[in-house]
C-alpha cells in the first residue's frame, strides 16, 4: 500500500491520476442538517405513540 498502489489515494497522487478515491472536484451539494429530526421531536413522537397504545389497551 505504498506509492505504486493505484487503488490508494497516495498512489494516485504519486502517479498524478484521479479517480473515486481522489476526485478532481469536491461534492457540489453538501448534506444539510435540516433533514435530521432533533431529539425533542423524536421523544415527543415516542411519547405520543405510547399514550395512544395505552388508551387502546384500557378499552
Automatic annotation (TrEMBL):
Residues 44-59 have a biased composition (Basic and acidic residues). One of its GO terms (cellular component) is ribosome. It holds the Pfam family Thx. InterPro entries: Ribosomal_bTHX, Ribosomal_bTHX/bTHXc/bTHXm. Keywords: Ribonucleoprotein, Ribosomal protein. Residues 1-59 are annotated as: Disordered. Residues 9-28 have a biased composition (Basic residues). Belongs to the bacterial ribosomal protein bTHX family. This is 30S ribosomal protein THX. It comes from Leeuwenhoekiella nanhaiensis.
Amino acid at each position: 500500500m505504498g506509492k505504486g498502489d493505484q487503488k490508494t489515494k497516495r498512489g494516485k497522487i504519486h502517479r498524478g491520476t484521479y479517480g473515486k478515491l481522489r476526485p478532481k472536484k469536491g461534492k457540489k451539494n453538501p448534506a444539510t442538517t435540516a433533514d435530521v429530526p432533533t431529539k425533542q421531536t423524536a421523544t415527543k413522537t415516542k411519547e405520543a405513540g405510547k399514550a395512544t397504545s395505552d388508551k387502546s389497551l384500557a378499552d
